[in-house]
């Protein structure tokens, strides 16, 4: 798998206008008196990779878990294909890959992959393809608890790829990967988007986000400080040559 | 790599979920450690039972009258299964809790509840896996029954299966409590505290307030251990089976309600309330299920056959007013020897304990038992069916039934060599379990899902 330049990764998004597959409005969540996310609004389309950007504690994970229905929202609506969908039914269209999860620690990696493949009725050849793409063959016979952080991340990525939902949410998908591995995985996610899925990725490493995402939501202290393509964000800051990091610092 | 078209997912096959749950249960050390601990526990109990049974059999071999009292059900099976009951009460909850808490603690639950299964389906799969663990845990006690038969011991299938059914239902109940506890708590340790508070709390109830009158008597009936007593007497009660199954199903449904983290606490409380009210209503209705059958070979829960045939023909209402306190040994005797049997044999029977029935109350009436059949009545102080049944027949105006010829219970004395049991439970069986554990830990082959990188599916 070769690395692909950010420009080529993002190519096609402008030429691929499509209706919003997910539309979020006024999404808020508090933990007691503490505001986790407040009045979050955004739209994403099939084929897009949307980066949710922010430092630790910005509310990225809470936003993803509220979106998918793992946390009850205090207010707000999530429309899928134009229809307001209750949290319990969102899992029909969305799949969320959490961070810091060891899925079924005492089972073998191959068993976990076969389980998800069987649940989603994926043929063995399809499962094998994902295993090969993510280079998981050496650890199929290892138990999940014995995996390194990088392989565990690959396993989680594989589970996300096995899920056929139109919207895939991933929390820190590159955490645990080195630069080379990240560059290997980025085209894989791009291909998933090109296949018609919308990817919502929570990323705190801004260079990674800039490399792969088409659009961004900048979160700080649970609030949306800006959203749009990098060019749109640059226009807002008046920094035409700024990278995502500089844009983020300017807007938050 | 080419991915399939994205699609919405609303259903998934059950088999992969069940297989995953079975792997989870079998993959944990808790199950195997429990199996190893059950071996000496059941083995020692079986050894003791064999030893005592053998000692009693030495004298019984010389006397047919003594032999009648030697029942393998009471002498061997109930005590051996009793050790299994202790293991299920104290150890089995940890295996059942792990089936859910492990996923909660590792974060896997957040993946699981996104899969296209309803929460109830997930709990059903977990309950089935937990009951498979119970089946595995029962292997030592099953092996004890096999050894007993190999030694030449007698087994009556009906009463044995009744006992097994009772323990299976008790295992289901403990498993459901453990899963419910795991669903409502954040850690395995908290779930263990909740579960053991209920299981060991039952023992406390039995020891402290059982046999006391009034509210205490009602509370004592909530004890889990009380549910087993009927089966240990060889009595199959459809109402009890229904009630135990219903409570277990309700606990699993409640666990399903509390499983989903995305629901608001108010929503969960409302659903739990609805589930609990439905369960209580169904339990109240279950008192209408009166079917029960004496499954024992010696028919200890029944009157003689002739009486069993005549009593159901007495169609007028029979009222029995007992002037005895429930904790009085005479009442216990009357209940076991007469009232329990009459309840099963007579369609229209009402039993009342007189309000003033206290040992320190009216000395004249205390101890008497009134029988009212139609317009007639009689009073007796006997607790023996040999005296009470003629009173009832007299009130009903029917002749005493002629004895029906039937096979007398012969009793089954047996003096066996018990060394084999010790070798099996302290040596061979633990080694087999360790071997099975090691065999289970080896990685399976995944060759069929391995393709070279870049190869197209």
Briefly, what is this?
The complex is a heterodimer of chains A (about 250) and B (about 450). Chain A is α/β, with parallel strands linked by helices.
What does this structure look like?
The complex is a heterodimer of chains A (252) and B (457). Helix content of chain A is 37%, strand content 25%. Chain A is built from ten helices and ten strands. Chain A has helices at residues 6-10, 60-68, 87-90, 109-119, 124-133, 149-162, 179-194, 206-212, 230-237, 244-251, and strands spanning 20-31, 34-45, 49-53, 75-80, 83-84, 94-97, 167-171, 198-203, 215-220, 223-228. Chain B has helices at residues 14-27, 29-60, 64-68, 72-90, 92-106, 109-112, 119-137, 139-150, 157-184, 188-208, 215-220, 224-232, 238-259, 265-285, 305-310, 329-345, 385-396, 419-441; strands at residues 235-237, 292-294, 318-322, 349-353, 369-373, 376-380. In chain B, strand 3 (318-322), helix 16 and strand 4 (349-353) form a beta-alpha-beta unit. In chain B, helix 4 (72-90) packs parallel to helix 9 (157-184), helix 5 runs antiparallel to helix 7 (119-137) and helix 9 (157-184) runs parallel beside helix 13 (238-259). The termini of chain B are close together. Chains A and B meet through strand 6, helix 4, helix 5 and helix 7 of A and helix 1 and helix 5 of B.
Q: At the third CATH level, what is the topology name of chain A?
A: Rossmann fold
Secondary-structure element pattern of chain B, one letter each: HHHHHHHHHHHHEHHEHEHEEEHH
| Overall shape of chain B | globular
Estimate percent helicity of chain B: 55-70%
CATH class of chain A: Alpha Beta
Strand proportion of chain A, as a percent range, falls in: 25-35%
Structural class of chain B: mainly alpha
The figure for the number of domains of chain A is: 1
| Overall pLDDT level of chain B | 89
Major β-sheet annotation of chain A = 6 strands, mixed
Rg of chain A from C-alpha positions? 18 Å
So, the CATH homologous superfamily of chain A?
A: P-loop containing nucleotide triphosphate hydrolases
Number of helices of chain A: 10
Q: What is the helix tally of chain B?
A: 18
């Amino acid at each position: 798998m070769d690395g692909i330049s950010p420009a080529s990764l993002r190519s096609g998004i402008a030429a691929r206008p499509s209706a919003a597959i997910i539309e979020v409005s006024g999404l808020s969540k508090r933990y007691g008196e503490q505001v986790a996310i407040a009045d979050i609004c955004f739209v994403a389309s099939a084929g897009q990779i949307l980066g949710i950007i922010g430092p630790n504690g910005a509310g990225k994970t809470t936003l993803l878990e509220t979106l998918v229905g793992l946390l009850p929202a205090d207010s707000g609506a999530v429309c899928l294909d134009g229809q307001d969908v209750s949290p319990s039914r969102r899992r029909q269209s969305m799949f969320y890959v959490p961070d810091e999860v060891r899925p079924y620690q005492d089972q073998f990696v191959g068993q976990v992959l076969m389980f998800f493949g069987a649940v989603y009725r994926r043929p063995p050849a399809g499962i094998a393809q994902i295993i090969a793409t993510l280079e998981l063959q050496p650890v199929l016979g290892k138990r999940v608890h014995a995996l390194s952080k990088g392989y565990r991340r690959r396993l989680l990525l594989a589970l996300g790829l096995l899920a056929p939902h139109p919207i895939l949410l991933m929390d820190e998908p590159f955490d645990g990967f080195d630069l080379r591995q990240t560059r290997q995985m980025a085209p894989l996610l791009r291909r998933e988007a090109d296949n018609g899925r919308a990817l919502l990725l929570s990323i705190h490493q801004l260079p990674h986000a800039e490399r792969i995402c088409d659009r961004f939501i900048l979160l700080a202290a649970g609030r949306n400080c800006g959203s749009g393509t990098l060019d749109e964000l640059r226009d807002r800051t008046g920094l035409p040559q700024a990278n995502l990091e500089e844009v983020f610092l300017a807007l938050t | 790599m080419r991915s399939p078209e994205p699609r919405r997912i609303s259903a998934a096959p059950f088999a992969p979920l069940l297989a995953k749950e079975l792997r989870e249960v079998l993959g944990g050390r808790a199950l195997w450690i429990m199996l190893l601990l059950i071996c000496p526990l059941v083995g020692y109990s079986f050894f003791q039972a064999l030893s005592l049974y053998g000692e009693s059999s030495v004298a019984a071999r010389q006397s047919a009258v003594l032999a009648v009292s030697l029942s393998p059900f009471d002498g061997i099976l109930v005590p051996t299964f009793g050790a299994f009951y202790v293991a299920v009460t104290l150890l089995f909850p940890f295996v059942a809790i792990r089936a859910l808490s492990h996923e909660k603690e590792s974060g896997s639950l957040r993946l699981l509840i996104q899969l296209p299964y309803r929460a109830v389906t997930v709990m059903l799969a977990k309950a089935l896996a937990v009951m498979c663990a119970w089946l595995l845990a029962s292997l030592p006690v099953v092996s004890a029954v096999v050894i007993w038969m190999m030694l030449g011991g007698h087994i009556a299938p009906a009463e044995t299966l009744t006992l097994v059914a009772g323990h299976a239902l008790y295992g289901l109940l403990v498993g459901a409590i453990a899963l419910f506890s795991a669903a409502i708590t954040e850690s395995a340790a908290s779930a263990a505290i909740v579960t053991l508070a209920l299981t060991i709390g039952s023992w406390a109830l039995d020891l402290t307030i059982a046999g006391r009158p009034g509210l205490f008597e009602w509370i004592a009936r909530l004890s889990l251990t009380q549910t087993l007593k009927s089966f240990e007497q060889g009595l199959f009660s459809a109402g009890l089976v229904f009630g135990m199954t219903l409570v277990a199903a309700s606990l699993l449904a409640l666990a399903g309600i509390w499983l989903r983290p995305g629901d608001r606490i108010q929503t969960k409380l409302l659903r739990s309330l609805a589930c609990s009210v439905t369960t209580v209503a169904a339990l109240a209705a279950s008192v209408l299920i009166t079917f029960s059958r004496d499954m024992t070979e010696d028919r200890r829960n029944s009157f003689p056959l002739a009486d069993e045939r005549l009593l159901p023909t007495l169609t007028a209402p029979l009222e029995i007013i007992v002037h005895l306190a429930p904790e009085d040994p005479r009442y216990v005797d009357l209940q076991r020897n007469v009232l329990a049997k009459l309840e099963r044999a007579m369609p229209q029977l009402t039993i009342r304990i007189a309000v003033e029935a206290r040992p320190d109350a009216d000395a004249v009436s205390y101890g008497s038992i009134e029988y009212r059949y139609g317009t007639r009545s009689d009073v007796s102080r006997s607790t023996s069916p040999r005296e009470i049944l003629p009173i009832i027949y007299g009130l009903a105006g029917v002749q005493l039934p002629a004895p029906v010829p039937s096979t007398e219970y012969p009793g089954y004395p047996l003096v066996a060599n018990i060394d084999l049991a010790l070798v099996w439970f302290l040596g061979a069986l633990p080694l087999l379990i360790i071997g099975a554990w090691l065999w289970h830990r080896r990685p399976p082959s995944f060759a069929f899902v391995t393709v070279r990188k870049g190869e197209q599916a």
